[in-house]
Specification:
Length: 71
C-alpha cells in the first residue's frame, strides 16, 4: 500500500475517456485501462498501461491495480 499527501490533481486517461479529479470532486468510481498521473506541486507520478479500479470519496482516492496474468 502506498499513501500520498498534498496531491493537487489526479489525471486519468483511459481508452474510452479522460478525467481530472481535484479536491472536493464528487464521489466517483470506475475502471481504467490506460494511464494515470498523480500530480503534486513539484512532481508527477505516472502509472502507464495499467488495468485498475478506482474510487474517489471524501477527498480520498483509492486505486486497485489488477495484476497481469502470466503467459
Amino acid at each position: 500500500m502506498v499513501y500520498y499527501e498534498k496531491v493537487e490533481a489526479i489525471r486519468i486517461k483511459s481508452k474510452e475517456y479522460q478525467l481530472t479529479i481535484m479536491k472536493d470532486h464528487l464521489p466517483i468510481l470506475g475502471e481504467i485501462e490506460g494511464n494515470i498521473q498523480i500530480e503534486f506541486l513539484e512532481q508527477t507520478i505516472k502509472l502507464e498501461n495499467i488495468v485498475a479500479y478506482y474510487m474517489h470519496k471524501h477527498n480520498q482516492f483509492k486505486l486497485f491495480i489488477k495484476e497481469e496474468e502470466e503467459k
